[in-house]
Amino acid sequence: MATERILIVDDEETLCEVLKINLENEGYDVDTALSAEEALLLDLKKYSLILLDIMMGEISGIKMAKILKADITTADIPIIFCTARDTEDDMVMGLNLGADDYIMKPYTIRNVIARVKSVLRRTSGQKTVTTTIEKPNKLKVEGLHLDLEFKRCVVDGEEVKLARKEFELLGYLISHRGKICSREQILNRIWSNEVVVLDRTIDVNITRLRSKIGKYGSYIVTRSGFGYGFRD
After folding, report:
1. Residue 97 phi, psi (nearest 5)
2. How many CB atoms lie within 10 A of CB 32?
3. Which DSSP letter does residue 167 get?
4. Which of 16, 161, 169, 206 is the most exposed place for a label (fewest CB within 10 A)?
5. What is the DSSP letter of 87?
6. Under a CB-based contact definition with an 8 Å cutoff, are residues 183 and 227 in contact?
7. Backbone φ and ψ of 19, nearest 5°
8. Going by DSSP bridges, is the β-strand pair 144-147/152-155 parallel, antiparallel, or unpaired?
9. Residue 25, SS3?
10. Integer Rg of the chain from CA
């Protein structure tokens, strides 16, 4: 059986290292990220469980959890919140988001390891189901439809002609709806075979897409310094 891989997301570097060492001693493969922004650049599908701090920087643990749950490829990854926010409302909010457990700081390493093992035992039967999910052939956002097999875009019942890169870019953004995709991620996915691609290339394609898909153009959001996304 493959070793289960855990991601620790916490802005306290020392705490991340202590947790990493102790979890690796239990036989897990462990990666760390010091912010949600850093974590979202990783291939999150490969993780068996995520230990997630709530109070971080620009993107909180709560926001990151929402992003994970909104993406079909990461929605079933178990999440354990580890946080100093210890009110009952905070705990209820975290669990209502779909978190599998909630550990309040300060905590003992022994307690964290016990919770990790418990959650992984409880959720291990769900992994087979997750890996058998096939990517949809059609993406729909209200009246905006993308047929990925026939490469067809329909806006409120009328077909709209998109260039190949425009179509691929729109499909990528919708597939990651609710998440900001960095320029690097977009370039690697859409222009991976190109020798030289300028950052301006993405901006031009985004501008064209917004004009072509009518009112749904406003669904494409820009986060300066981060990238682009397709809003919920």
Report:
1. -75, -10
2. 18
3. H
4. 161
5. -
6. yes
7. -65, -45
8. antiparallel
9. helix
10. 20
